[in-house]
Target: ABC transporter permease
Amino acid sequence: MSGPVMKLLLRRLLTLIPTLILVSLLLFCILRMLPVDPAAMSLPPNATNAEIEAMRIEMGLDKPLIQQYGIWFGNIIHGDFGASIHYRTAVSKLVLDTLPATIELALAAMVFATLFGVLGGLWLFYTRGGVVESVLDLGTVALLSIPEFLWGLFFMLLFGVSLDLLPFIGRLGAGVDRPETITGFLLIDSLLAGSPLTFLDAIRHMILPSVALGLSAAPPIMRILRSTLMDVYQEDYIHQARQRGISEGRILIFHALKNAFLPTLSLMGVQFGFLFGGTLLVEIIYSYPGMGNLMVDAIRNADLPIIQTVGLTYCVMVLLISMVVDVLYLVLNPKLREA
Model:
């Protein structure tokens, strides 16, 4: 790995630590403002005031808020995220069990958004100046105005209920055996277990929620790609290629797209971060057993340890996505490496 890439990784890792501390502090303090007593929630309904007070002391809730945060953050550094009030088990286990499902869904949605966005952006640019471009541009505005959960409901009713073409509940069908957990990622585990039927069934269950998520992320990719292509087409090397008799299609794909894709890549990183956070509602709609469902259950049961850990996990994932995109941008852009 080259020196500039290593410097960028080191700089991003150094900024990651204070960002996580700030986010965790805000998350911890805001949750403590809620009218919820974790000590009372962790005891049976018939617990006495004395038992509740003893539990408060045991959980450290009698200490000042900043001291409570210090204890919680210190435990996190040692890998102890606490125990769930509702599930009575380690929060880290619950998050690790559900995180792979959310990552798989977000990645599938991003693959669809990238393909749909890049192809749509090329089509928008190729039809520039005509009636087709105006129609497509209006279509992107319409796509931008529809949130992912509405797409999810629409696809469920159309393709799941009315046409009965695709499953819309869970990650696997009722009669499909789940392979032994090796990595936690269902698609990878099914391939490692030599179970193509399980793999295909998992893919079928991911189509509707991933497309619903991807459609909300694709329109900005289309529009920024079209805009950057218009800027690139003003460059001298495009005019020189045209004078050499190179076809417009080859100029677009082999000359302009390479340079126009870099700003689009930055936007894709931002969209992936939003998309990862947007899985929550879609997971609820499709009963998809990811972190979104875990978060909603935690909110319903006022399970503060889960809410804190899931919120921190979302933050870490978004920061890691941003770091990966920055590294890719540096690798693909020689000018930045030289600078």
Remarks:
- DSSP finds 15 helices and no strands in the chain.
- The CA atoms of residues 2 and 269 lie 22 Å apart.
